[in-house]
Amino acid sequence: MTPELMEAGARVREAALLKAQAGPGTSGGRAASYGRVVQSGELDVAHGPILYLEEITVSFDGFKALNELSLLIDAGELRCIIGPNGAGKTTMMDVITGKTRPDAGKAFFGSTIDLLRMRENEIASVGIGRKFQKPTVFEHLSVFQNLELALKDDRGVRSSMFFRLSGEQLDRIGAMLALIHLKDSAQRTAGLLSHGQKQWLEIGMLLMQEPRLLLLDEPVAGMSDEETERTGELFVSLAGKHSLVVVEHDMAFIERIARKVTVLHEGCVLAEGPMTQVQNDPKVIEVYLGR
Amino acid sequence: MSAVASDTLTPTLSREREREPIAVPAPSLSRWRERAGVRAGVLLALIAVLLLAPLLNLVVPATSALHLSDYAIALIGKIMCYAICALAMDLIWGYTGILSLGHGVFFALGGYAMGMYLMRQIGRDGNYKSDLPDFMVFLDWKALPWHWSLSDSFGATLALIVLVPGLLAFVFGYFAFRSRIKGVYFSIITQAMTYATMLLFFRNETGFGGNNGFTDFKRILAIPIATPSTRMTLFVITGLTLIGFFLFARWLVGSKFGRVLQAIRDAESRVMFTGYDPLRYKLTIWVISAVMCGIAGALYVPQVGIINPSEMSPAASIEIAIWAAVGGRGTLIGPILGAFFVNGAKSMFTQLIPEFWLYFLGALFIAVTLFLPRGIVGLLRGKPREERA
To answer: Which of A160, A174, A207 sits opposite B255 (nearest CB)?
Structure first.
């Protein structure tokens, strides 16, 4: 054994000791890199998009409701989706929220959360809220109780048995009642509300969950002109902090709020871009707008 | 507008300004007060029965007009057990919207657990003067089967009364709710469950006394079972259990848990997309409901003196649902009133004109379905809640 070898060995040992002293979890003296640790279950939108759909295919008895649909929604975006009946708009929402399992394809929430491995309630818990086409509220509970159930909190059985509304939570419900213009109806049974009010209540329930992504299926159906306008303003104000996907048939409404529009046709994307560009797209005119 | 909208999501508005308009948090106080009258009334009546019945039965001489006969005590005791079942049925059907037509099986399992203990308490006083229960001697069995090994211990019996119905409900409910079996399909498989269990208990080989079941009990905790004081003790315990379960159920449905149950009844998919796992909620209330029925069965057997597989017949389970429907679903008082009303009428009819009882029951059920969708309680309360709100 030569002295050089022994010295080299000593150096390696010293380096190893130093590294060990630096302790686990640190970078051991190396410079910070851009690599990040993947936190499972935590939303990661560092790459931009909040929702990735890749070549999603859903078929019902041979009929392809979605045909290799790919779609990216950026964080903070307000995206409108239009398309004729049967284009696959609702099926797409079913896939994102776990109601329907696709035959093929990938669906990710942020870059880390695989939606296809989760159940409906888990998807809701990671921050995707959905409004149904037909307003769905808890008809026998009061408006207040509807919002209280939607309040972001522990969803476990035991914690719900011993749940007590805190002052801060009461304030949040109060603020939401004001926002959705149902303050005077707080104690009314939700089943007695008008159609438009139910739509608002459902939107309010969605917001109580503090979702990162909101899927809104025909949110202004059955609303008066004034209610529609207020809804549009609300959605525009929510964009940025939340990401919104709005499916609507009301073209005037879409024109008012849309920044980027996606046209679905026969289960895949036909066109995408600003409203004016989409409106002038000959393919779109042919299948949808021109009719 | 837009500025207000984004602000309100993270409320920065002052508490004083915001809280005032919604000073009455859910559930609304006015509704509570209205119902409190009926609730307190029934509760007081139950307590009165519990205090008065022993006095009138044991202290007042038999010649007096105020004397309450042993028959009446036995009848009220029995109906109180049924009332517990009806209350349990209401939690799962009235509040959660899941109609079980198999609750009789949980009632019977609790009853059988108690019955096995009571059979062992007979000791050598049976017809055959054997250590084994009479039916085992009759079948020429030489030793107790394995599943009777805990039947000598009263503590173990109490545990089994809760665990056996609870475990069956848990396993059955887990698979049924996980497979998202709903509505009439769920009701049908609960019927199948109780029917299959009944066939199992009918067989002599399973060691539950076949179609005769268990009877001829002599004592409980070494105390003779047929004396007036033992009967009265069982009667009072049953009444206290009923009151206890009523208060428990009231707490349960008044909590957020109870509101999630009602939300599941109204719109299960919305509950799911709000982030709640309906499976856990349904399973919890299903098991609670089954355990309540099991305890009712265990209280029923020593008072009535017999348990046999007919308690598991599909008709017995359907009757539980009828009590709840007649009394008023979705209220806690309703099922108790319903159990007393239907069973009171039953005992009256079967004494006076027995052949008409089933016609009456059928007519009653049709009348309630057609004219009283909210049961007796709906009749007492007048206008439906929706119209008042």
So the answer is: A160
What whole-number distance in Å separates Cα of residue A159 and Cα of residue B6? 29
d(CA A6, CA A18): 18
In a domain, B263, yes or no: yes
User: Can you state the angle between helices B333-352 and B70-90, rounded to 10 degrees?
Assistant: 140
CB contact residues (below 8 A), chain B span 137-166, against chain A: none
CATH assignment of the domain containing A140: 3.40.50.300
Q: Which segments of A22-100 does DSSP mark as H helices, in order?
A: 89-96
Do A136 and B259 lie within an 8 Å CB cutoff?
Answer: no
Reported as a single tens digit per residue, the pLDDT across A201-221 is 999 999 999 999 999 999 988
Query: How many structural domains is chain B composed of?
Result: 1
**What is the pTM for the complete model shown?**
0.86
Could you read off the pLDDT of A15-39 as tens digits, one per residue? Answer: 888 877 766 555 544 545 556 666 6
* Residues of chain A contacting B269 with CB distance shorter than 8 Å: 99, 120, 132, 136
Q: Is position B134 within any domain?
A: yes
Note the ipTM here.
Answer: 0.83
Identify which of B18, B266, B280 has the shortest CB distance to residue A171: B18
Whether A33 is covered by a domain: the verdict is no
Q: Which tokens in the block code for residue A178?
A: 């004001």
